[in-house]
Amino acid sequence: xxxxxxxxxxxxxxxxxxxxxxxxxxxxxxxxxxxxxxxxxxxxxxxxxxxxxxxxxxxxxxxxxxxxxxxxxxxxxxxxxxxxxxxxxxxxxxxxxx
Length: 98
Prior knowledge:
64% helix, globular
């Protein structure tokens, strides 16, 4: 189940969010098409969530789709462990020596 009935958009430390972040950073961000998807997603998703987020079908339909996606990503080896992502982020920011 998604964090708090689709509040995945708002929770930083949620298992599903870590899996999706790892997929974004390790798969999508490495291709031109993936980076385009990321930019488009961040540009469009707040508006879509505002328009449709409170509709009766939005949470069950998209929550179910995201749950299936997260499960598939986990089967493919993407992890919900935040420590590796934080280590990469901190190395990038220069706060932890390599």
